[in-house]
Amino acid sequence: MAFTLYNAPQSTCSQRVRFVLNAKDLPFAEIKLNLLEGDQLKPDYLKLNPNGVVPTLDHDGAIVIDSTVITEYLDEVVPGSSFTPDDPVKRARMRTLMHFIDEMPAASVRVPTFNLAFLPTFQKMSREDFTAMAESKPLRREFMLTMGQTGFPKAEMDAALARLRRSWERMDAEIAASGGPWLLGRDISLADVAAMPALVRMHDLDLADWQDLPRVVTWFDNIRAQQAFQPTYYHGSLLSDRFPHLREKGAKTA
Ligand SMILES: N[C@@H](CCC(=O)N[C@@H](CS)C(=O)NCC(=O)O)C(=O)O
Question: Do 193 and 187 contact (CB within 8 A), yes or no?
Fold first, then answer.
């Protein structure tokens, strides 16, 4: 079995897939796309992934896209070290949480990410180049145009941070209900993998605001202690590795 992963080091969706590949000890060739330079919008890549986003998995020539779909696919084709519960009711619960995570924290984390990390790059572009780049994005055109070259306004940033905070509260409630330490109880599942990158991102942006939610604090420690975590977050995978301005004091309020 040969796996090739088209991805980007700092892409949160890519990190989910790298984590599962690493946890299952599956060797994979990694093709790194430069998202700020538009590698994901080139015609050859769009043939693989018409959404113009990473990640994309090539498994012996079969193309699978969308990070949660890829992680489920990997659990199906390589069932060892499974992240999917046997019980169909628990499996449904896991998928419900994965939908929630995609809709809430995974979507909301893009606002602080773009405002704090990517905006300076977009501000250096001419208005024409920025608009052309935004309009060439199949999935994120309106998102980019709304952000523009001045960034999301404070109200939008506050709303995203509020949605993120509600996500951690929901995680805390889920862990309490399942008995923990993971979202579904004793065993780590794809729902935990789906949530991981948003928390790592907020921690990296110095915006972690779950210290008063002890179950989430423990969850975050536990996921970072997983053997698959370090190889997933190799050097260059954090935004602060690539954008040192984020390490400057006060960056998060910029
Ligand atoms: N639902 C997709 C979303 C993928 C996605 O948004 N990927 C981002 C990186 S995390 C991307 O490639 N962005 C490129 C762009 O916005 O042009 C998935 O989970 O794979």
Answer: no
Burial class (CB in 10 A: 0-12, 13-18, 19+), 68: buried
- The closest residue, in CA terms, to atom 13 on ligand 1 is 53
The answer on pLDDT for 130 being more than 90 is yes
DSSP assignment letter at 245? G
Q: What is the pLDDT of residues 28-69, one digit of tens each?
A: 999 999 999 999 999 999 999 999 999 999 999 999 999 999
- Report the length, in residues, of the chain: 254
Nearest CA to ligand 1 atom 12: 53
CA distance 221 to 28: 27
Between the CA of 177 and the centroid of ligand 1 the distance, in Å, is: 31
Protein residue with its CA nearest to atom 1 in ligand 1: 66
The pTM score is 0.97
Distance 202 CA to ligand 1 centre (A): 17
